[in-house]
Each structure stands twice: as C-alpha cells, then as structure tokens.
Model the fold of this input.
Amino acid sequence: MTDYDEHVQHTWNLTRPDSDGVTIDLWTDGYTVRVDGGDGEASETGRKAVEELLEKYTATGYRIASSYAVNDPVALDEEPEAEPDGRPEKCPECGSPVEYEASHCSDFREGEAWLCTGCRWGQYVTA
Done:
C-alpha cells in the first residue's frame, strides 16, 4: 500500500477481472488492518477483521491472488512449494472447482489448504 512497509506484518492481494485490485494489510501490532482499493475499511480487531474482509470480498467475486508475510525474512527467502497430490475433484459442499492455497490463514491456523472457488469451503492439506 505504501513504499514504507516496516509496520506491515501480512498482506493479501485480491483481484477481480472487472475491477481494480484490493490490498488488505495486517500491521505488525497484530490489531491494525488497512484496506487499499476497497470501501476504505479500517479496523483495530486484527485477524478477525481480515477474515471478515476476505469473506466480504470473495463473496463479491474477488479471489485471493497472493497472501504473504511482508516482514518475515524466512518466508521471503523460501521458494514456493509445489502443489501437493490429493486435490479434491470438486468441492464437497457446492461442486465448484478447488484450488491450492500455500498459506491460507484463518483465526486459529495458517497453512496449506484446498479452498473452493465458489463457497470458499476449505480443508487443510495436513492435519
């Protein structure tokens, strides 16, 4: 969102073919959330707000193009992992295609997951 991002812990970039992108930043304080390109939302409730914003934007047709730790040197130096075997044929909830997300974030967990492109059903790759 800015040229100066030492205060940013994690960034999510969302895209939709008929619209400009949306960027959601969670700051290193763990509470501050800022949105660029959306409805100007801002919050001080951390991951909970991020999850709500991701849900809001994916419900309106956006998809998560990237999700990455900004100020975590280990994460920045690692090569992206290849998609593991075992992708479900289709979503068990709605039948839509399923995509691989290398670092899916929820309120209580972060890791590799299979996510539905329709209803956003999800299943972590490892238990």
Remarks:
- Strands lie at 8-16, 19-27, 33-36, 42-43, 63-69, 98-105, 110-116, 122-124.
- The radius of gyration is 15 Å.
